[in-house]
Amino acid sequence: MVTDWTARLAELAAAADVPGAVLGIWADGEQTLAPYGVLSRATGVEVTAESVFQIGSITKVWTATMIMQLVSEGRLGLDDTVADLLPEATFATADRVTVRHLLTHTSGIDGDIFTDTGRGDDYLEKYVAILPEAMQIFEPGAAYSYCNSGFGVLGRIIEVLDGRVWDESLRVRLVEPLGLNQTVTLPEDAILHRAAVGHSQVDGSAVTSWMLPRSLTPVGLITQSAGDLLAFARLHLDDGVAPGGNRLLDASAAAAMRELAVPVSGASGMSGVGLTWRLNDWGDRRLYGHDGVTVGQFAFVRIDPVARVAVCLLTNSPNAPALYEALFREVFAQYGVVMPGTPEPYDGPAPEGLERHTGTYLRSGVTFDVSVGPGGLRALVRATGARASLADFPERTYDLAPADPGGDHFLLREGPDQPWTPVTFRTFPDGSRYLFSGGRVTPAT
């Protein structure tokens, strides 16, 4: 049994080439915070337990929590449409996309609109105004496809109903009631703390662009300490009751957020999604959690309601997935939870008929050109538009390893020491083809 998580984190982080990290554990009524390394290789400033990191898309659960507060207050319903709540929204399906669709990533809106709409407090109003330019990938409710754009819409709904900018609603509704002192959304506030800087996958150096555009704030721009993230995790672990004893969310709303709403197959580690929480079946346990990725920073949180354990990992490196796999496996094993192994390539004869998958697959921010090479399927992946300037590799070729003999399921990985992630080729009911990777639907052109 590991008793010194600081030492163990140091061993595993060094092996994974992660410059800095903080591990947070809430278990048995006690909190453990284990820091490691440096905030930036450029400055060499040491990581402490109070250091703040970008939590990326874990921010979405904070946005969803505020939406569920508004539901409990009777100010909106899960089946209200965007058009009902935002008359300003003019994208084609606004009268059919509901709050529930947005929370469960089933709206069909092209999900990776990273357009910078400026630093003004009207950033979300402007963001919603550009969505008519977004492609509608499928009909609302027809499939699951991870959708950043939808949480920009949810953020704007919160603003309109609360009559204040999203950042202020976050402060009033959650940050202050939870007693958090190391949770911010703006860089001018982050620099008042020991703030981590992301690192490049290319050469491991510190990045030169610290954050995503402000237009993505309710999507993924919360910056905070591991202790503050654990306080939020405990809010959900305790069915909406804050660590200080105040109820911030109805118990029924908290439970609904982690109940299966949409099954998901072919997404790494996920069995489904609730009202934003991702569900993970580990052995005989169903955990819930979320991951987050920004510019060179990766974050993870997992919660086991049976063992009453919450674990988070904040890092400043794209090498973090390997660290997460090794570290969380050990942490949760101490509480009787068996984390499943990562997928591995199929060890058998090469599948036949791979030509049926060749072609170009396109959505906002990325293009996949799939071809058959000497060793099997190969994908040339190109970042496009606003995402190209944020990508470590604007263009990269991956060999797709078969995951089974059927020839529709494959795996890729970012490097030899990183875990494999699924890539699946599927068809819509109308026969049109799409690629499913990273939890996203990418249609064939």
From TrEMBL:
- The EC designation for this entry is 3.-.-.-
Listed A to Z, the keywords are:
Hydrolase
Domain annotation Beta-lactamase-related: ranges: 8-324
Enzyme class of the recorded protein, top EC level: hydrolase
User: Molecular function terms in GO for this entry?
Assistant: hydrolase activity
Q: Which InterPro entries match?
A: AmpC-like, Beta-lactam-related, Beta-lactam/transpept-like
Q: Work out whether the entry's keyword set contains Cell membrane.
A: no
Keyword Hydrolase (UniProt) = yes
Any Pfam family the entry gives = Beta-lactamase
Top-level division of the source organism's lineage: Bacteria
Protein name per its UniProtKB record:
Serine hydrolase domain-containing protein
